């Protein structure tokens, strides 16, 4: 796919025929990657949980514990994945990850008990939430700099809409074919759709096709487009206040919202609502997350990221409290809207802050450490909620605790300012 120029450099056959910045081609490719990871994301797994528990005879605590342990162990390789991305580029790493993920979905369809469910959760979480999420997000940051907020907003708008679509599609597949065939079909679809895109359209970075981030000409006089003006490594990042504040704010929603997604169907069943009510909630939630991410992405290009972070935690804390009051479709949609707004704003900050504060050179390793913490934290929420339900017969108390714990981060987030060295 590459020709040799007179100066010895490679000319990409496909990218050279695109009459605009190739980063705009990469955005829908990354969007497909994000959507393809859905069978390994909590909102995708959640609709399968009641059927898996019922067929295999598992309690809430058992399936939540398997999910916790699997997710916790899945967090460990993320620094390695980020380091491999820095060394080999995301394309090669993604090809292996996507292949293994599709096979894992097919393998999950053959689960026979708690051990095989645990192993399936381990690889689903390691490959989807961890590796695919990390590599997709870092790819966007390699292609965009000054317009990174907008790019992330566009990507996340589409990705968030999948939160509404995927549970509905998965539920339809389960009702038509059973949960085992549903998971196998999703896994096969991932391989058939994503691998050709990686082979044909995916490119690691703009420099590989003779371009620069944002598509700005090399002679434009904008030094900030190169990303090399900030090349801070992990040792620098961990000495900054913003890194640790973001570490906490990344872990907190990961635990709480993952727990909510994992138990969403049971939460609704407990208050006299139905699986379809939960699926419709996901549609409203997805639309709200998408809209707030698009707006948040535009805001991230214009306003201080710490202010947006603070506002996002208000929405997350408030949304979780609203969930404790859900008893009808109206209150369900209110919950989805408030939490979706907070999460969308938070995701716009999370997707933008790292490259803005620390640059692109060591992005894989820096984000890999945070992804490790995020994936590890996401293991706790489902277990805490499962144990609370088994002991108390309700999720009300644990959700109230989540809301109270999240509230102070709205103030702490204000201190997540850019390091002086990168100002």
What can be said about this structure in brief?
The chain is 72% helix and 1% strand. It has 423 residues and is mainly alpha-helical.
For this entry, give a set of tags:
Growth Hormone, Chain: A; two-stranded antiparallel sheet; single chain; 423 residues; 1% strand; globular; 72% helix; mainly alpha
Structure in words:
It is a single chain. The protein is mainly α and 423 residues long. It has a single domain, classed as Up-down Bundle (Growth Hormone, Chain: A), CATH 1.20.1250.20. It has helices at residues 23-36, 42-45, 49-56, 60-74, 78-88, 90-108, 114-143, 148-177, 179-200, 234-237, 241-262, 264-270, 275-300, 305-323, 329-358, 363-378, 380-392, 396-406, 409-412, and strands at residues 2-4, 10-12. A two-stranded antiparallel ribbon has the order 1-2. α8 (148-177) runs antiparallel to α13.
Number of domains: 1
Relevant CATH superfamily: MFS general substrate transporter like domains
Number of strands: 2
And the CATH topology?
Growth Hormone, Chain: A
Strand content: under 5%
The helix/strand order is: EEHHHHHHHHHHHHHHHHHHH
Q: Rg from C-alpha positions?
A: 21 Å
Structure classification: mainly alpha
If classified by CATH, what would the architecture be?
Up-down Bundle
Q: What value does the average pLDDT take?
A: 86
Span between termini: 40 Å
Binned, the helix content reads over 70%
Spatial arrangement of strands, main beta sheet = 1-2
Runs in which pLDDT lies below 50 for 5 or more consecutive residues are 1-9, 221-228
| CATH structural class | Mainly Alpha
Number of helices: 19
Instruction: Let me know the largest β-sheet.
Output: 2 strands, antiparallel
**What coarse outline follows from CA principal-axis ratios?**
globular
